[in-house]
Amino acid sequence: MNNVILFDGECNFCDHSVQFIIKRDKKAIYKFASIQSDIGQKILKNFNVPENIDSLILVEGNKCYFKSSAALRICKNLKGGWKLLYCFLSIPKLVRDYFYDIIAKNRYKWFGKKDACMLPSPEMRNRFLK
Question: For labelling, which of 42, 70, 80, 127 has a CA lying 20 to 30 Å from the CA of 9?
């Protein structure tokens, strides 16, 4: 698996984040799967991801990235000024993840939760793993 983003399919913020990435990923570098899906669970198991991880997950080749490291690495390949956020990887992970965790812990309260994963449009369906 290469360039796969795993996201919480029940989270409104995560859904908007996926839509944000798709809109700015003009080269269609990234594929997507919800963490709750069978393929998402298989990827988590293959990379021995802890069950309690509360994060967007990026798989690049044989490496798996979490939290701010995943988000900032994704930005590197997005159209526009979003690429500049990649430089924040130079900030210590402990500091970056502190702020990431605040958003992650409050995402349902601030942005809401869905009963089910979103259904991609027919033209976007090929970007989602089954």
Answer: 80
